[in-house]
Design brief:
about 260 residues; alpha/beta; Rossmann fold; six-stranded mixed beta sheet; four-stranded antiparallel beta sheet; 10 strands; globular; binds adenosine-5'-triphosphate; binds magnesium ion
Amino acid sequence: MGEALSDGRILLSLDHISKSYRGRGGYRVQALDDVSLDVAKGATTAIVGESGSGKSTLSRIALRIEHEDSGDVRFHGERLAYSRGRGVAGKVQAVFQDPYGSLNPRFTIRRSMLEPLHVIGVDGDEAERRIRDALSFVKLPQDSLDRYPDQFSGGQRQRICIARAIAPDPELIVLDEPTSALDVIVQAEIINLLLRLQQERGVAYLYISHDLATVRHIADAIAVMHSGRIVEQGDATTIIDDPQEAYTRQLLNSIPDIRL
Ligand SMILES: Nc1ncnc2c1ncn2[C@@H]1O[C@H](COP(=O)(O)OP(=O)(O)OP(=O)(O)O)[C@@H](O)[C@H]1O
Ligand SMILES: [Mg+2]
């Protein structure tokens, strides 16, 4: 286990979260089984683990778009009720794996980017200023605003999704496999963009990935999930250089160059 965070450093805390789904044939799938995890202010906590281990379920619960069966989600120490993602009023944003699916193809980029600002009551000139600022941060031209998603590459679309996420000035961005659909060069560009964003604006990330190679570049802390449980968690270098659990070692060994 890593060093426990002092309360003042904790931004998001997931406390004893359990969640099951009714699977096919009526039996229950225990997607999360008593998972506890903290995200520190301005830092990155990564969740790694094989497909089906519960990473996305945990991220949806953190975003308050999915109900837990039991447990608490706290933001700045305050318990967050389930509220279709609106309870934290722009302070928590999300970027998902599929930049094609997460932008409505019938909406201009402007309309897609204005939506989360509208939710927090930012409209008019201030909203326009915010989306223009976010777009220049991700290094896309301002005339992108009047265009449609299919006029952009996958990497550019993911930049747009990041710009949309930063416009409300969040304290936390939940990133669920944000680079998995992209080629290696574009992956590196997105990771560098995320690092720059964190350095300049102090935003924290809950970063979900099964790709330990990118995790190594971005994470301060790592939680390793397997079958709905956290098998090991701690600071990133310790988990990568000195894993204690057989499952973590197995995961690391599946990527030969992880320790380079
Ligand atoms: N809406 C749902 N209904 C039923 N079962 C679900 C639902 N969502 C997730 N599950 C099940 O819960 C478990 C965890 O799924 P989850 O999507 O959280 O895994 P994951 O770690 O994100 O996997 P991946 O790496 O493939 O994205 C899996 O067994 C999955 O089939
Ligand atoms: Mg997933």
